[in-house]
Amino acid sequence: MSNAMYNKMWHQTQEALNSLLDKESEKMMKPQRNQVFIFQTLATFYIKYVQIFRNLENVYDQIVHPQKRILIRKLLDGVMGRILELKNEMVELELTEFHYFDDILQDLKLVPQQLDIPIPKYFLKERLEVIKEREKILAQLLADSGLGITEKKYPVKPIPLEEAVKLIQVAERARQGRLRAMFMKQIYLQEYRAKQARLLDERVADVGTAALCIQKVWRGFHQCKRTEREREEEMIFLGMNPPPLFNEVSAALIQADRVTHLRDEVQVKHEEEYRDALVTIKDDLKLIEGPNIKENLQDEIRRWFIECRGLTGTFPDYPKVEEGGSAIIFSNKTRQQVIEDIIASQEEEEKDKKKKKEEKPKKGKKGKEKKERKEKNKDEGDGWQMSPSVFLHMMQEGNNVYKDLWKNKDESWNVPQGYDPELIKEDKRKELESEIRLQVDELMRQELKNLKLAVNREKELSGKTGSKK
């Protein structure tokens, strides 16, 4: 199949996964008491996740876009983990490892074969070199220990010369005897044919009788062949015998296998190009955009210094490296939002001081509220509720990335499905910014320290001049 077909299959699988995640979050919020309903829900989710896994595994094996493969691999691992979680929930619910999905399969219009979970092909592909190396090591260990499979050597016993001559004579006499017997048989057959020919000459030849005899033999032979052919066709129709080309590999399968190998080669090629591009694009960004990023970060932090001093009257404390440095201040926020956060934090500090004074008389009310919460939790705890999932968050993250990045992306320019340089630039730009930010933080900490010293010196000088007056 083509790249467009596998992309379409991926989009359809993502739609199914998105709807399944929505349904799962809706149905598993409230505790349930009906065991039949619980099993039906778990089994339905299990079957649908198996279908999604089969499609994702096929897409991951054949798609050649390296950046899409990273996301599909993340989703595939999450779906496999979720299947194991649902299986464990069903085992704990029914106390058996064998479940019956006949009704659910009939409702979903599926056959039991569609519940088979294939071993992902990348398990073998990604570990092929390791497996080959392991086989070499095992073969070497067996050879060194003498336990390897070796050809059995038969010992050659020497015999005397007279006995060897007797063996040769016996073999030669036997050969001559076989030739003499064959010659005598040929003589006998010649004599027999001549005798039969003399007997036929003596009979009166009848052309009509001879033709009838030939026709009879031919019709019998023809009908025998026809009967055999009809019997073979009947057995094939009944399914008792395989068709004539059953053991032969069709040309379509040979072509499909050839295309699969070609796609594997293209996958490896695109993956190598993608890894090389990660390094080259980052180096280019460092040379071209690195100085501008550094200058913008310094200007942004300086404005923060000035605005904070204008609002509070003092310079702010620079965040420590352990806290994240300046990244914690400007993470997904504009300068105006940072200023509003500073004002809000100051107001909260004042409110906290007032609340501490008023907290003492309210302890009795809090005790009653705790008791009411415990009673509510007891009432809710009577029903069954699914244990928290480790893999749902992973699948939701991957699904959100797909919606934001790949769902409506125009890829008409990328027919061979190579890497997308713009996506690499976005990721490497963030990585480069975090590296440059560490350097800028060191410089701006020193600059902030110098500013504070300068302001304190000015205050001391102004205080001295005021006292002299």
TrEMBL record:
Residues 353-368 have a biased composition (Basic residues). Residues 348-387 are annotated as: Disordered. Residues 369-381 have a biased composition (Basic and acidic residues). It comes from the Eukaryota. This is IQ and AAA domain-containing protein 1-like.
